[in-house]
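Progress note, project year one: complex with zinc ion.
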Amino acid sequence: MQCPVCLKNTWKNRGTQLIECASCKFVRAKDDYFLANFDEVYSDKYYQRGDYFNYEEEEKALKKNFTDRLHKISAYVASGNLLDVGCGYGYFLELARTRYKAAGVERNHQTAEKVAKRLDLEIFGGDFLEYTSPKKFDIITAFDVIEHVLNPKEFVAKCNTLTQTNGLLIIETGDIESVLARVQRDKWRLINPPEHLNYFSRKTLAALLASTSYEVLFVQRVPFWRTLRQIVFRSIKRDAGFISKLPNLLIPLNTYDLIFVGAKKCKSV
Ligand SMILES: [Zn+2]
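Model obtained:
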């Protein structure tokens, strides 16, 4: 498989589940993980003991994070059309629609329908690459999404086609070159293919964005809130009976391994 960042095709192993591009150092899951049944991976189970111990229990924590991110985004683009890709249960859209004319895309059809009904917003259910819109967006947001997609170059190119020139693309993802990821290696909590297929660093993400006519405006190492249950679930990477007995606490963290990136569309690809 060609490297989506530099388009070369020379890979070397990086730990037991990942490979690294020998040319640009982009990291991705080994080939076999790309053959997973993704309808199964992203069925309703995904939100319960998949990537999340219990996604609904994370609502308060996620909304605290999204309030912070929304504040940062609005410093760059104060109004206009916003598209949230991978909108999940719509927690970000619920906040964003107070400022922007908001719409969403969600891979899971039933989740998309539920969110559309609950928030009375336009939510496309299905693969983002199949989404079309008569209007161009001023902002596209993708929180914890790019690590999941089969081809991140196609993903960013699709964002480009849906965005006004000078429009903003916001991406939040893990940083495989962060100190924590390098120290923990295979044990880093964000290594969980086939859910996470792509593992960017500031450098490889900037290179990908540049190759799709985006200019990086900022990269921040952002703090985040999580529930205690989610933290434990992610740390041990499995469901254990005691997790649901833990108190429902919200905890602020900064592990310096998440990057929040804003980029401006320079021209159409
Ligand atoms: Zn490469």
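The CA atoms of residues 229 and 245 lie 9 Å apart.
Residues 3, 5-6, 8, 21, 23-24, 26 surround zinc ion (CB under 6 Å).
No further modelling is planned for this target in the current period.
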